[in-house]
User: Fold these one by one.
Assistant:
Number 1:
Amino acid sequence: MKIEIKGPIISDRDQWIYDWFGIKATSPSKVHEQLSKVPENEEIEMDINSGGGSVFDASEIYTALRNHPSKVKGDIVGLAASAASVIAMAADHLRMSPTSQMMIHNASSIAIGDHREMSHTSDFLKNVNQTIANAYRLKSGKDDSELLKMMDAETWMTPQQAKEHGLIDEIMFETEASAVASVQSGMIPPEVLDKLRNELKNVSPESSISSAPAVMNIAQNKREEGKEMNLEQLKNDYPELYKQVKNEGYQEGVKAENQRIKDIEDLQLPGNDALINQAKFETNASASDVAVQIIKAEKERGQNFLNDRNKDADPLNNAGGVHTPLTPANDGEKEKHLISNTIGKMFGGVKNELGQ
């Protein structure tokens, strides 16, 4: 029987959220469910491709696999990093694909508080690191000190390196190739999960969101029966649930449309009435799209203004220049210029033109 360790390692309480969004993830309850279906004396084939996640949930999965009476054959088909590498250690015979990688490192956490809280968190993490190293030691036979140094360094291993350290038993296939793996675990951020839980606390029973687990259970049952649940089947087999989903969807649609129109109206600028009305009632454009259109329209309007202003100024720019005549000097001024020119000549100066 095959079981999968795919996606982030998460807690049981978060599993349905990942399922709802269609994101692969592995929780202890999911593994327990798969193990409960293993026929007696049948070998378990475990495929692993995970960037890790919760240490304590990984510990529960590791323990469940080690306790199971069936032999566990594990294949690391992509990545076994962090907590996922701990789960991999539960395999009686562990192989790695030549294009896979394994990564081991220290546990991490977030702490808030004074120096005592920080010291306490530091001691706690050191203890967690030791328990993680226990799983590696039982598989490889290495000393704890060497394993802890490897964890301190955040050690990435190719299949050859993992085999040299005794962490795997075999490399799959005969030909070997290079590999590229992501360090992303794919876990939904804790703040998103917390927000979703808080949102669900005050949702009424009639809400489609509150009925999400029910819809998922129905869809899951259909898949197990070899059938896919579609909207028409939901309407016929579960009319009340269908009405809840439809009504909630309608209300959400109205709310979203009202918000779209309000956002567009907030963008109103003089001269853009036609564009605003068209977006509100004809094109169904988003506020961000309308904002871009308004910017383009304003830019074009400004360019047209500059072009018109330059066009109006052309006649003035092309007009010929006129020389302003010198004002005739009176006799008194001529006399002054003659005196000035005479003094200039005495000192090597230049004759003033008005002194002629």
Number 2:
Amino acid sequence: MRARNVALYAADKGNRYRLHVDRADGRQLGTLLLLAARSPRSLVYLPLRSNPDVPDVGLDGEHPLDLVLVPRARQFRPAHWKRLRTRITTANAPRELRTASVPENDLTRDIADDRPSSGDRCMLRQHLFAETLFLTGASGAFREAARHVFALAAEGPPLAADYYGHDYHAGICNYHHCSNLYNGEELPDGWRQVHMAFHPTWAR
């Protein structure tokens, strides 16, 4: 299933990325984060650049990005991404369809045992290359990111229903419901905050 209601933007100037999700595809993104947490050899690719733009959101000076989730154990180098992406997206590339699932208790699992205790290793590391944002980290960091995304997808719809039509602030915090991927963390030099906002379904 393609996540058409997930959008990721970067500004030419500024200190953050913007990630927008609706309820259904926000839950799908959260599940993919949990998959990255459970599968250290995986590489999760979300081709978001071709998705429809989020309506009523100011995008001046911004451009869409793809997203790749890479477990730290995978030791994937972003410099290899262009060649791999070409292999993945070639029309006649061999494909084997599979399904994947994650246990329901993954979201409530205590991450203390699999998350480093301090420093930027306890967060998802960032690399921007070839119009793609790479998020790399330990399983606990992916699991914690999933918690943020699931909360956004769950709490956004009732707020959207309450605010819709009379208290909407385009381009700021849609329907007054947003959060940051790195909550309360001091980011290393060169990193950007990933600001996440809920938006009702905009693509079918």
Number 3:
Amino acid sequence: MQDKVQSIKAEISAATANSQEELEAYRMRFISKKSVVGELFAGMKDVAPEERKSYGQVINEVKDLAEAKFKELIDQLNQQSAGTHTDHIDLTLPPVSGSLGSVHPLTAVRQRIIEIFERIGFNLSEGPEIEDDWHNFTALNFPENHPAREMQDTFFIEKNPDIALRTHTSSVQVRVMENQKPPIRTLSPGRVFRNEAISARAHCVFHQVEGLYVDENVGFADLKQTLYHFAKEMFGKQTKVRFRPSYFPFTEPSAEIDITCMICGGKGCNICKGSGWVEIGGSGMVDPNVLENCGIDSTKYSGFAFGMGIERITMLKYQIKDLRLFTENDVRFLKQFTPMS
């Protein structure tokens, strides 16, 4: 038995491994349960009881030697692999520049809009895309069966007509007013849904950003100055803004917001239909009924709200003529854009 143990020790000491296959062969011969060391442990049952203690010490030494050698072989093999890899690197070659992805134009414009309004005190608020009738319509002064509900083709949940995909981010403003006391100055960007045919100028999924300011003594002049500031920051100091009377159930008075056509510079073209103006959104003073629906005293507080399509702003900013380009994932189109400053 002593001769066998000495032979195994000598074999372990002389072992080498120049590949993963040779390392695995060593493990199977000396480390695994069916290895020669394992056979030594299995032979303990044949050793006389009074000799088992000394026998156990001997085979434990063999086991420790085999495991130490195994770790040594692993380290040696790793060093050889690292050296081999380094030898194949030609440090004289020029570096390969990485090709970074571009920022989606809608993302860039959305972030720019947020930056502009954050600088004048607006904070950010978000809400669910699946809304109930109260937050999407009723609280915003859309009575049941009111014709104004037909202004927006809505995706209703078939099994529950009280639940729908939100048609505007005004629903977020309702949630803010329900849970926060004035003064309120918030911006609500997000994705909205309307059951419309997809074309170069319309889509069933698009993005809006809506602003709300509620406080004491808020007037229409505050709304106008806020939007003047936005238009000139987004499109340039030369941009002109005009307000046209309009109707929205949740604001009174209401106005459409037009700016100078970016394509023709206000001279008239097919994009602005020869008028020199293009619409970018709607606005108005928050209807007192909306304030009361949200638990705000309309005799003490007033406010203004506005909403704009991010796709429309992006199309004007970059002179893009087809709305569908934003969702087609054409790399040739997307790689043209970088973050806005």
